[in-house]
Amino acid sequence: MSSAPIVLPDREGEHLWFDGGLLTFKATGAHTAGALLLLEVLQPEGKTPPLHVHPEADETFYVLEGELLVHTAGTEHDVREGGVVVVPRGTPHSFVVISQSARMLLAFTPASAVMEDFVRRASEPATDPMLTAPAPDSERYQAAAESSGLKVLGLSPFEGSRRPSQLKLA
Question: What is the pLDDT of residues 118-128, one digit of tens each?
Fold first, then answer.
């Protein structure tokens, strides 16, 4: 880890508009000597990234608010506020937000330079994080994935087959 502690209040950090939501860098590889990349992500209902893998890092989801359906290694898991999912590196995964919105922490261990590069290429600065996020830009997302080396395997398993409201579990 770095020699300086990282102390940030709730919802503070570097804010970016990312794929229709708000992403906040809480700790980067540079801050942690490569040990950790920590992101706070706020996404709207229906958000679902493509099926992908992180060959260089494990990804941990901690749901702060809302509810997700997480697809990992061919299985779907309902993850609610306070829930955790750890996806080992190299494991295909995706998720869909099934509540009105979801706020989560995403931790990559060790820090993923590929993921940080992808996020920065796919985003734009959010000078006022209280505003509504701009619509997703699929061309920018695709170009960022290709240029950063993010391993996209295909469409999300939730893409187009079911509406988010149909995914909500009791």
Answer: 999 999 999 89
Residue 160's contacts (CB-CB under 8 Å, 6 or more residues apart) are: none
Residue 159: Cβ within 10 Å count: 14
Report residue 169 as tokens.
């579990």
Reported as a single tens digit per residue, the pLDDT across 17-62 is 999 999 999 999 999 999 999 999 999 999 999 999 999 999 999 9
Q: How far is CA 41 from CA 22, 62, 129, in A?
A: 6, 10, 12
pTM: 0.90
User: Which element (helix H / strand E) includes 142?
Assistant: helix 138-148
Q: Are 44 and 28 in contact (CB under 8 A)?
A: no
C-alpha distances in angstroms, 145 versus 1, 33, 46, 121, 124? 28, 24, 20, 8, 15
Q: Which helix (H) or strand (E) holds 37?
A: strand 37-44
